[in-house]
């Protein structure tokens, strides 16, 4: 059983890899736009190098979700289908000429 979904884990790590260098650079007194740019480059490069497994696991989960061989059944599908069928039957009955 997984305690945290892969996408949450991956996203949290990416945020930390951006926020930590940004905070350090801002505390050091570097210009905010330079700090943001350096932190973004650092976060991208380190996540690309060190987060390969979570990235691949997340992409596999996304692929599996998009390419399911069977549709996911919903609990109320049968009830909705029955209501639609009943409505169509009622319309058909109204359109038929009466036998008198």
Q: What does the radius of gyration come to?
A: 27 Å
Question: Alpha-carbon distance between the termini?
Answer: 67 Å
Give the tally of β-strands.
0
Q: What is the helix/strand order?
A: HHHH
Q: What is the typical, i.e. mean, pLDDT?
A: 86
Query: Structural class per helix/strand content?
Result: mainly alpha
Q: In terms of per-residue confidence, which ranges show pLDDT below 50 for 5 or more consecutive residues?
A: none
Please characterize this protein's 3D structure.
There is one protein chain. The protein has 100 residues and is mainly α. The protein has a domain at 1-66. 75% of the residues lie in helices and 0% in strands. It is built from four helices and no strands. It has helices spanning 6-27, 32-50, 52-66, 77-95. α1 (6-27) runs antiparallel to α2 (32-50) and α1 crosses α3 (52-66). The termini are far apart.
């Amino acid at each position: 059983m997984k305690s945290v979904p892969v996408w949450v884990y991956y996203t949290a790590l990416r945020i930390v890899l951006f926020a930590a260098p940004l905070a350090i650079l801002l505390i050091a007194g570097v210009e905010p736009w330079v700090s943001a740019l350096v932190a973004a480059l650092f976060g991208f490069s380190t996540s690309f190098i060190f987060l390969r497994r979570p990235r691949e696991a997340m992409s596999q989960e996304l692929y599996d979700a998009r390419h399911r061989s069977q549709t996911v059944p919903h609990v109320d599908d049968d009830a909705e289908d029955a209501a639609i069928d009943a409505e169509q039957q009622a319309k058909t009955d109204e359109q038929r000429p009466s036998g008198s």
